[in-house]
Amino acid sequence: MCGIVAYNGLKQASPIIIEGLKRLEYRGYDSAGIAVMGEKMQSFKQKGKVIDLEMVMSEHAISGTIGLGHTRWATHGAPNDINAHPQRSGNHDISLVHNGIIENYDVLKKLLAELGHQFESDTDTEVLVHLIEEYQGRENCTIEEAVNLALQKVIGAYAIVVFDKKFPDRLVGARKSSPLLLGIGEDELFLASDAAPVIKYTNRVIYLEDGEIVVLKKNGEYQISNLKNEVLNPKVQELDLSLEAIEKEGFEHFMLKEIFQQKETVYETLRGRFSAFDGWVSVGGLKKEFKKILKAKRLIMISSGTSWHAALVGEYLIEELARIPVEVEYSSEFRYRNPIISKRDVVVAISQSGETADTLAALELANSRHATTYGIVNVVGSSIARATKTGSYTHAGPEIGVASTKAFTSQVAMLTLVALSLAQERGTLSRSFTMQILTELENIPKKIERVLANADKIKYVASEIKDSTNALYLGRGYNFPIALEGALKLKEISYIHAEGYPAAEMKHGPIALIDENMPVIIIATNHSAHGKIISNIQEIKARKGVVISIVNEGDEVIKALSDYTIEIPEIVEPLSPILSVIPLQLLAYYIAVMRGCNVDQPRNLAKSVTVE
Ligand code: G6P
Fold this sequence. Notes:
alpha/beta
């Protein structure tokens, strides 16, 4: 979590940094800060969002062409002005911004305190800046040397940028387990947590690797080395990312834009990877390790949050279509329970950001046990994408709303291709069923458009249930994970307590909660369980629950039993999650807007969880 932006060039640094921080606010937004060096050092820190920081800055004339900024998601120390970054050294010369956690900060803090260091904040970050100061004082060295020495003592995760008044021409950046990239422009250099703050100025970047330190000097000169002081010469990458892709383009919120983009983003995921006409599926990433994957004893999927729900859909898809056993694991549980992993296992890491700390660590564990690792990742060049042996990008484009929407449908689309590709090789599917699914896949963007055309009806349903304090989401089979995802969306952005359940499990607990104040959203599109879903609805109605059903177009039976229905087009069952999740995304979105919630930046959450 936390977003970092730093600039060293010829332009005024503060507008570039502030604009960049706004683009990174999805990473954390409880406080923000900036330090800019001109004739003198000017530093501002403010609890709240970047806009609150901007208000404070507007009362001052700020000038300087080198600086660093931070938007925070608190880990150590409450979100307040003092704990905001940059944190500074005791002599106020050194400023530092940090994304990550210094795990041994308490030991270091004690040692430094014994040496006379006094601390202002409750953060682990302040300990690091004091440690750098300590080394610089002792060794009388440059700031980059002091950073190197300090990092040798640090346990934990970090992406940092450091500025020292004594070396006013340079910034120093370093990373371990938290992302940091160097943007290379004409006579100007940037450091940022991702490409969004940089892309307006340059598409030439270097993703720093763990253990690397970069020094950014004036006139665009930079040097990358490792902690052993060996100079490195990594390749510059040219990013294929446009500015429009990271702007709202007329939508009220990023989340709404991203929900509406799904007709294109699902298409982008599928593009070039199958042909309904010729009846083939080809997933490049799988092919690289196809032999091992086909021989695998089982697939283990690791992920968190919404990506975990996509993995659950993947389990249904791969087990049904390709008949390979799949286990779905929360990355955070998997990595800490000494799991049984052998080289005959395939571990599939699913992640939008490609930076989720637990998924990355679980993946590294799988690599260390020689499993074949395969990534399904959205952000190109991200840490998880680089740590897997092979992988496929979902190509959903930048997702900025903290609640994941388009990334989810793209993950499910990708997993559908994986299942079909494995099924094709293993001969587990009939030709006619394969052709039916492929034809439906080809038509899915049009069907998504039809779901989106119901937005006004969904808005009306939202207005009817927006004041509820609880909600229950039910689904069966492929739509059980969608019930979980629908409930998560509502919780995340509207702060209404919601739970997802397999419809049949309702009788084992949640039914006790149902009364006239409990909306029950039931995904009732499955043909195979239609009769059973009707019984579930009757059980809810008998207890006066409010039933909102997601049904196939023309399903008059369920419509007659429900208080509200939202129709979606008919589709072959394995593909239904891609359609049925969309009304739930919209429902959560409209309810949150009506309740006055900050949809794109819900409280306490962050898009990219780069700490454990
Ligand atoms: C956070 C985000 C979720 C996301 C989860 C996993 O909790 O708020 O939207 O699903 O992390 O992130 P990943 O980037 O690994 O998919």
